[in-house]
Amino acid sequence: MTKTRVAVDVGGTFTDVCIMDEGTGQIRIEKTPSTPDDPMRAIMTGVSDAKVDLADVTMFSHGTTVATNALITRNLPRAAMVCTEGFRDVVEIRRSNKEDLWDTYKDVAKPYIPRRDRLTVKERIDAGGKIITPLDEDEARRVAAILKKRDVKAIAVCFINSYVNSENEVRMREILREVMPDVHISISAEIMPEIFEHERFSTTMVNAVVSPVVVDYVSRLSDKLADGGYARDLLLLHTGGGVMTPASVKDFAARLAGSGIAAGAIASRFIGNLCGYENSIGFDMGGTSTDVSLTYRGESTVTKDWYIEYGYPIRFPSIEVLTIGAGGGSLAWKDEGGSLRNGPQSAGATPGPACYSNGNMVATNSDANVVLGRLGHSLAGGDITLDPALAEEAVRRTVAAPFGMELHAAAEAIIDVANANMANAVRLLSISRGHDPRDFALVAFGGAGALHGAAVAKELSIPVVIVPPNPGVTSAMGCLLVDIQHDFSDSFMADAASTKPEDLEAAFARIEKEALERLRHEGVAPEDTVLQRTVEMMYQGQWRSLAVSAPSRITSTEDLVNGFHREHEREYNFRREEAPVSIFRVGVKATGIVQKAKLPSFEVTEHQPTPQGTRDVWFKGKACKADIYDRAQMKAGATFTGPAIVEQVDSTVVVPPKATATVDQYMNILIRVEA
């Protein structure tokens, strides 16, 4: 009996299913159009079309956009917030800043919970954790009765200073559950036990509002898989780069916001490390957007400063991914100043690019690539036929005629603008953070990543582009490469020079106990458990902190301080040895190791592959005869030069003139771009 692992990534255009044979490591793929109204339908269709017997599946992992889409569209159930008296407006006051400071007309979005549903109770805890005013239980029960009458589906409980003493929040939750036992309740002391009330309140609010949506979706999908014969836990990818079971989703639903984009970053890191590049940039270009991530010294960059909508931070640790509206379906348009723009508007899956013949007549990146000969006349193994005449008509109407350009020049202009947008996104994650792109490899994947990867690399002087064997489903494959992982943290505000190692050890002991209990709850055996410590530090007077790795046994704070100096110099290009250093927070990453299947390796024999034919492909205003290769026929060791096009079921690879491409032992295509 063949044992398999299945991973599913739901995108804006396609749902990708990746099936791995545990015995051989061989991967096969299935793509099906996404069903935004209910992503589960596309998942089950993909599983069915791939002829997967769920009874033979040993692991089913899933990167989901359900939480993200619910927040973006604000298609959320009615939720409420219970706050300390006088603090109901913390989430609305925010930090009194704006995303675009100089745009008078652009304001921050309203909170996910409106003011009328943010109620207060009398209680107060001081900064040291002492209860000044006990919870007024009569008032708490009055609030519970009001919320029951309003038929709210979720409640966020956010009290001042509860991160140091959760007693009042816990009691408030008990009272709410007495009245509404089936309502989802999130308390800030458990969701994010850290200082900074806005960030703590906001994270708890987001967790509360998405809980009913996410839990319902995960429960339905779990039941559907079980009905099909799947006998284990569904694993959900979260933004921190690990997976969680449905049991944890019930408590930390907001961790799935951004779940889908994290899968690509994980896969990119894995492929870069596999090819010998511990520094790599993930370039995941799909039909609607492009996700850019960065791996430095073999590890993904992680941030706590992220959000779905500006002004409402979600402070769970997350793999840093920058998303821009640039994909195969991004629309070309002329702005009010007469300049050519590209995206963020997209044709999506329906109607799709003009060449899909579904009624859209506005040029997209896909249409431009068809006109330039870089994209053939069929996709998805022939399931989608592209009409070059409609593509040409759209490019003429949208760009060539309005700008007075020749057809192919107009198509190249569309692609150049898209590439410039994506190159700028890469710069934001690399150059602006003190990294030189020339020291990195570009891992290009997604349905359109391999079409544009070489051009973006050339723009940034990145020396090599890695195209994985199945670029269109690489994000889905990322779901097969992760462990069960949770992040825990606790405030520890103290001067580093006067902090005793035993005090730090006591703080770590508290959160490590919680971490071990969580992993045990998810069925992780002790021998598969790994705990990694971090200490967040800052120069006194600073606002933001930097995380430094801490040993399993701390005997001195001096090494921690020296590590902070080094990290600060790398991140900000300066260090202040003479300045006092403050400890801000301690954290633990708890990992439950999941057995991973190995990708197959092939013997490398250098050779020149045989092209399937040639066609005219346009580069820099000139038509070139480009060799056309079938990737399914390529073997390890194949070497060829551009201009060339490599076609496969889920993507198309463009090798520009003067570039050299080789196929490695893992069947990745490595394109070396001329500087």
Structure description:
With 675 residues, the chain is of the alpha+beta class. Among the domains are: 4-70 and 215-256, ATPase, nucleotide binding domain (Nucleotidyltransferase, domain 5, 2-Layer Sandwich), CATH 3.30.420; 75-206, Rossmann fold (3-Layer(aba) Sandwich), CATH 3.40.50; 330-408, no CATH class; 484-592, Dna Ligase, domain 1. Strands 13, 14, 15, 18, 23, 24, 31, 34 and 35 form a 9-stranded mixed beta sheet that branches. A 6-stranded mixed beta sheet has the order 3-2-1-4-11-12. A 4-stranded parallel beta sheet has the order 6-5-9-10, with helices on both faces. The two termini are 51 Å apart.
Q: What's the total count of β strands?
A: 35
Q: Using the 3D structure, state the CATH architecture of the domain at 75-206.
A: 3-Layer(aba) Sandwich
Quote the CATH topology of the domain at 75-206: Rossmann fold
Work out the strand percent. 25-35%
Please describe the topology of this protein.
Elements: E1 4-10, E2 14-21, E3 27-33, H1 39-49, E4 57-63, H2 66-73, E5 79-84, H3 90-93, E6 118-121, E7 124-125, E8 131-133, H4 137-149, E9 154-158, H5 167-179, E10 184-187, H6 188-191, H7 197-227, E11 234-237, E12 243-244, H8 246-249, H9 259-274, E13 280-285, E14 290-296, E15 299-300, E16 302-303, E17 318-319, E18 321-324, E19 330-334, E20 340-346, H10 365-371, E21 378-379, E22 384-385, H11 388-403, H12 407-429, E23 441-445, H13 449-460, E24 464-467, H14 474-478, E25 484-495, H15 501-521, E26 529-539, E27 546-550, H16 558-572, E28 581-592, E29 613-619, E30 622-630, E31 639-641, E32 644-647, E33 652-655, E34 660-663, E35 669-672
Parallel strand pairs: 1-4, 4-11, 5-6, 5-9, 9-10, 13-23, 23-24, 30-32
Antiparallel strand pairs: 1-2, 2-3, 7-8, 11-12, 13-14, 14-15, 14-18, 16-17, 19-20, 21-22, 24-35, 25-28, 26-27, 26-28, 29-30, 31-34, 32-33, 34-35
